[in-house]
From TrEMBL:
Matches recorded under PANTHER family: SENSOR HISTIDINE KINASE TRCS (PTHR45436:SF5), SENSOR HISTIDINE KINASE YKOH (PTHR45436)
Record's keyword terms, sorted: Kinase, Membrane, Phosphoprotein, Transferase, Transmembrane, Transmembrane helix
Biological process per Gene Ontology, one example term: phosphorelay signal transduction system
Protein name, as recorded: histidine kinase
InterPro entries found in the cross-reference section: HATPase_C_sf, HATPase_dom, His_kinase_dom, Nitrate/nitrite_sensing, TCS_sensor_his_kinase
């Protein structure tokens, strides 16, 4: 599935890339065609509206100079309103195509709504000539801002020419502003504005002519080089100098009309250029999309075929590796633990891929190395076990001889202090014997200590306490008279002694360790309780897991020899050892001995009437093997 996933990622990316390329390329064509739609429904009505507002501005300026009557102004306002209604109706069908178009169209709507207030101020005589002209200028500037924002196209030549044509149209707008200001005598403020507008218009024309292509530039050059334009330039200079030239309106009116016709012609020509480009882009899109689709199909087929073959080979390699890890190696390790000889066949994986074949050979080498390591570990473990066993046996022999000598010395000793020292040595010898038995248990062998007859469980507890250094702190509570099978007595004594010693080591010296025992439905249970600092729940869980499932002995983990010995002894006789928290804050170890190892109490002998004798003097008994 991962191989399929790895294949799907690039294949999906290719399909998505193909779709994106197709959509982008087709989108370019559609956008080029949209250029025509935007021209028809938005820019052309905007140009018509600009022309009407320019005429209304001019006739309003004439009205303020008392050279036009109100009927002419009303007639022009009617034409302007008709152009505004036409623009509003057509722009509403296209303004929602993009957020940018919507923003610009709404800005134009806001300015158009101000026309009525501008007219009202003019009619009421509240606005002078300059203020009225600037009010109309604000509306027209917004319309030209609309042209600049929506005349975007992904064809750079068309876009560049369209931008220049719009700026040339704005130069015509500046000429119209000059017309309105230059009527009659101008004051200082009007002269300053006129000078600024004339300079901007000349700059735009000079700059735009150098950027237009020949088809669009020639009509503009013809106008610029005409006698009427040269005469208009002279009149501009006169107005800037403070004069009032004759024939200003008639001269500029003809030039404005010619400039407007040249601009409309250039805009229409650019609009017609977009259609062939759109068709070419669309054809290129279909060709590119078809080629890319063919490549995608070939890539998918090839990738799926290679992926299927690689998946089958990897599946075979996976099965072989699982067989090695889950069946072969565990089986080999189990046989090695039993001391049997093993033979490991080589791992063979049929593959046509060199890398997978190399991995198969590597697995075979790893398998052989793992077997050799397991054999070496088994031999090392067996050797360590032999060393432990030999050392422990030698120590046991010496300790046995030492205990015999101590027993003889105890019988011959008469000084109480010497006798007490001999008892301490005897106790120390008993502890050393337990540690020697621990080495035997670590080696995997069985200690030689054992009993032929059942032993009372109370004596088992006492014997375990006697093998601990701080035996004075151990309190053994009374128990029932049940007995423990002699074959397990030695191991149980050792097990409980390890638990008692652990309790004395990890609890304060002034506290006691309680050992109690009672029969259960499934055997007999010992409890070893200390009043130390206890253990965290995580630590308790870890120790209980080790006690339930004895791990392999690790030579490096020498700090937990006691725990390992306890778990080994418990597993040997199916004894369950559990650690839990004590109500006193310490730890309680519970040892549950199965019922097959527990015998009923020894029946009491019948009472026989005997002559009453004096009470016997208490004796101290030293037990031995």
């Amino acid at each position: 599935m991962k191989i399929i996933g790895l294949l799907l990622v690039p294949l999906t990316s290719m399909v998505v890339l193909w779709g994106v390329i197709t959509a982008v390329t087709a989108g370019e064509s559609l956008e080029l065609r949209q250029y025509k739609t935007v021209w028809t429904n938005l820019r052309l009505p905007a140009y018509k509206l600009i022309s009407e507002i320019q005429r209304e501005r001019l006739i309003s300026a004439q009205l303020l100079r008392n050279v036009a009557d109100e009927s002419a102004v009303a007639a022009q306002r009617t034409k302007t309103d008709a152009a505004r209604d036409s623009f509003t109706q057509l722009s509403s069908t296209i303004k929602d195509r993009s957020e940018e178009i919507r923003t610009q169209v709404n800005a134009v709507y806001t300015q158009l709504d101000r026309l009525d207030s501008v007219r009202g101020e003019i009619d009421a005589g509240l606005s002078d000539r300059l203020h009225s002209v600037e009010a109309y200028n604000s509306v027209i500037d917004t319309l030209y801002g609309l042209h600049r924002k929506v005349a975007l196209i992904d064809d750079i030549p068309i876009y560049e020419q369209s931008r220049v044509v719009i700026e040339m149209g704005y130069a015509r707008e500046l000429l119209s502003r000059e017309q309105a200001i230059g009527l009659g005598t101008v004051d200082a403020a009007e002269r300053r504005l006129f000078t600024q507008i004339a300079g901007n218009r000349r700059f735009l024309i000079d700059q735009g002519l150098g950027e237009l292509d020949p088809a669009l530039r020639d009509p503009q050059v013809a106008l610029i080089s005409s006698p009427a334009y040269q005469r208009m330039r002279m009149m501009e200079d006169q107005i800037i100098a403070g004069g009032t030239p004759q024939g200003w309106l008639s001269t500029t009116e003809g030039l404005a009309k010619s400039f407007n016709e040249a601009q409309m012609k250039a805009s229409t020509l650019l609009n017609e250029r977009a259609d062939p480009v759109a068709d070419e882009v669309l054809s290129r899109a279909f060709l590119l999309a078809g080629t890319a689709l063919a490549l995608v199909i070939v890539s998918i087929a090839f990738s799926l075929r290679m992926g299927d073959r690689l998946s089958k080979e990897l599946g075979a390699l996976r099965l072989a590796a699982l067989e090695v890890s889950q069946e072969r190696l565990p089986h080999v390790v189990a046989k090695l633990r039993k001391g049997e000889k093993v033979e490991m066949p080589e791992l063979s994986v049929a593959s046509t891929t060199v890398e997978i074949d190399d991995v198969g050979q590597a697995f075979s080498t790893v398998q052989q190395t793992a077997v050799e390591a397991a054999v070496g570990q088994a031999q090392l473990r067996e050797g360590v076990g032999h060393v432990f066993r030999n050392l422990a046996r030698r120590s046991q022999t010496l300790l046995h001889r030492q205990r015999i000598q101590l027993a003889d010395m105890q019988h011959r000793a008469t000084d109480p202090e010497q006798l007490d020292d001999l008892f301490k040595l005897d106790h120390l010898t008993t502890r050393m014997r337990r540690h020697a038995e621990g080495l035997i248990i670590l080696s995997g062998a069985t200690p030689g200590r054992g009993w032929s007859r059942p032993v009372p469980l109370l004596d088992v507890a006492r014997g375990a306490a006697a093998e601990v250094e701080d035996y004075q702190r151990v309190v053994i509570e009374p128990m029932s008279g049940q007995r423990l099978a002699g074959t397990v007595v030695g191991d149980v004594i050792h097990l409980i002694a390890e638990l008692i010693e652990n309790a004395t080591v990890y609890s304060p010296a002034h506290t006691t360790v309680i050992v109690r025992g009672e029969g259960t439905a499934r055997g007999f249970a010992f409890e070893v309780e200390d009043r130390g600092f206890g253990m965290e729940p995580e630590e308790l869980a870890e120790y209980n897991e080790r006690l339930a499932s004895p791990p392999e002995f690790d030579l490096a983990d020498s700090d937990r020899l006691g725990l390992f010995v306890v778990s080994r002894l418990a597993a040997r006789h199916d004894i369950r050892v559990t650690l839990r928290g004590s109500p006193y804050g310490g730890t309680t170890a519970i040892v549950l001995i199965p019922e097959e190892h527990v015998a009923e109490p020894e029946p009491e002998a019948p009472a026989i009437a005997v002559q009453k004798e004096p009470a016997a003097r208490p004796m101290r008994v030293v037990r031995s093997d």
